């Protein structure tokens, strides 16, 4: 166990993951585009399994659920009129569950997510989805900056290899670890898996 300090710890922020009974669940961009093709993510299928378990437990706990989907227009990898843009069947919304469409990495930018959360009376958020380094990261940071307390479920997130500025490759596992560590330094509690979330 490392004895390194985080800004969360130094600031006295809680290290405890959110409770399903007191939080809202935000599923970010769990769309088919990440399961195959140019944007296929490393570890995407196990992450979807974890998200499915998390969603089932949230429904059992009557946790407010918000499904976020990204829309980049016709012909894009995030084309909502194509199969690639659809929310994956395993975590598909039920009638009555909120579906919010976004056009930016943060689910709070250009949407009414903040207003909906305030109307629901929740400040604790549980985040899962894709991609860890992009939309999960951006949404968690926005949430923190807006006064919410996000918990990110590491096992229900995934990312992909990226090109580095020097022309080398940043492996997905390295990017995943760095992205989660950056969030855990201040912006969010990072829980290893769904079992770390209290009911």
The helix-and-strand class reads alpha/beta
Show unreliable segments.
none
- Give the total of beta strands: 8
Strand order of the largest sheet: 3-2-1-4-5-8
Query: What's the number of helices?
Result: 5
Please give the alpha-carbon distance between the first and last residues.
27 Å
Report the sheet with the most strands, covering strand number, pairing sense and barrel closure: 6 strands, parallel
CATH homology group: Isochorismatase-like
How are helices and strands ordered from N to C? HEHEEHEHEEEHE
The domain tally reads 1
So what's the CATH class? Alpha Beta
User: Mind telling me the C-alpha Rg?
Assistant: 16 Å
> How much of the polypeptide forms β-strand, as a percent range?
15-25%
Helical residue percent?
25-40%
Large-scale geometry: globular
Quote the average pLDDT.
97
**Annotated CATH topology:** Rossmann fold
CATH architecture heading: 3-Layer(aba) Sandwich
Summary?
The protein has about 200 residues and is an alpha/beta fold. It is about 30% helix and about 20% strand.
Please characterize this protein's 3D structure.
The chain has 199 residues and is α/β, with parallel strands linked by helices. It has one domain: Isochorismatase-like (Rossmann fold, 3-Layer(aba) Sandwich), CATH 3.40.50. The protein has five helices and eight strands, in the order αβαββαβαβββαβ. The protein has helices at 7-11, 44-60, 113-120, 132-145, 172-187; strands at 23-28, 65-70, 98-102, 124-130, 149-158, 162-163, 169-170, 189-191. The strands form two sheets. Strands 3-2-1-4-5-8 form a six-stranded parallel sheet. A two-stranded antiparallel sheet has the order 6-7. Helix 4 runs parallel beside helix 5 (172-187). The longest helix is centred in the N-terminal third of the chain and has 17 residues, at 44-60. The mean pLDDT is 97.
């Amino acid at each position: 166990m490392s004895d390194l300090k985080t800004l969360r710890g130094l600031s006295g922020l809680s290290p405890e993951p959110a409770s399903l009974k007191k939080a809202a669940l935000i599923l970010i961009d769990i769309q088919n585009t990440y399961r195959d093709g140019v944007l296929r993510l490393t570890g995407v299928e196990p992450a979807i399994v974890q998200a499915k378990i998390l969603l089932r437990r949230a429904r059992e706990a009557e946790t407010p659920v918000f499904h976020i989907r990204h829309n980049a227009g016709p012909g894009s990898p995030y084309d909502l009129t194509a199969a690639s843009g659809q929310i994956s069947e395993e975590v598909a919304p039920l009638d009555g569950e909120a579906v919010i469409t976004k056009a930016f990495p943060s689910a709070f930018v250009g949407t009414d997510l903040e207003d909906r959360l305030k109307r629901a009376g929740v400040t604790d958020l549980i985040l899962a989805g894709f991609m860890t380094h992009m939309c999960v990261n951006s949404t968690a940071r926005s949430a923190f900056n807006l006064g919410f307390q996000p918990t990110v479920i590491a096992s229900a997130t995934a990312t992909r290899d990226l090109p580095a500025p020097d022309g080398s490759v940043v492996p997905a596992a390295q990017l995943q670890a760095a992205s989660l560590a950056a969030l855990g330094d201040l912006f969010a509690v990072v829980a290893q898996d769904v079992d770390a979330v209290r009911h």
